[in-house]
Design goal:
With about 150 residues, this protein is mainly alpha-helical. It has one domain. It contains 2 helices and no strands. The protein starts with a helix and ends with a helix.
Length: about 150
């Protein structure tokens, strides 16, 4: 049975003949009080240990939480940097591709221009050959006509 403060305050001892108290009752009660207080002190010590362990555990969890928060923050920053670099690289790749495409288009335009010029030159050569051939044929006809007339 555990003693309460009310039990201790209300404890009555049997009076002895000369106004004293029964020493055995007092000793028994003091033994109960001492045992209860010893139990309370042990329980209190255990609770203090538990509280201290819990405080350490809470502190460990707080440190872990801070570490995790810092890690998450660092990872987020790293991801943001990687993402930004990826966008920059993508922009560079697109810009380079556009420049290469423009250069290739320019080269193809120049080749097409050169081909048109070559076609025009060949057409002019053809016309020149036809003119020369006609002149040669006229000259031959005239020569034949003059040989025939002689």
């Amino acid at each position: 049975m555990e003693l309460t403060p009310l039990d201790i305050r209300n404890q009555k001892f049997t009076a002895k003949k000369l106004g004293g108290l029964d020493a055995d009752e007092v000793q028994a009660f003091l033994g109960q009080v001492a045992t209860s207080f010893e139990d309370l002190l042990v329980e209190r010590a255990d609770l203090l240990k538990t509280i201290n362990n819990d405080k350490k555990t809470v502190e460990d969890y707080r440190r872990l939480e801070k570490s995790l928060t810092d890690a998450v923050y660092t990872m987020q920053r790293a991801l943001d940097e990687i993402k930004a670099k990826a966008y920059q690289e993508a922009d560079l790749i697109v810009a380079e591709a556009k420049m290469r495409a423009e250069k290739e288009v320019e080269v193809i335009r120049n080749q097409a221009n050169d081909l048109h010029l070559e076609i025009d030159r060949l057409k002019q050569m053809r016309v020149g050959y036809f003119v020369k051939l006609r002149n040669l044929m006229r000259t031959q006809e005239e020569l034949l006509n003059s040989m025939e007339n002689e």
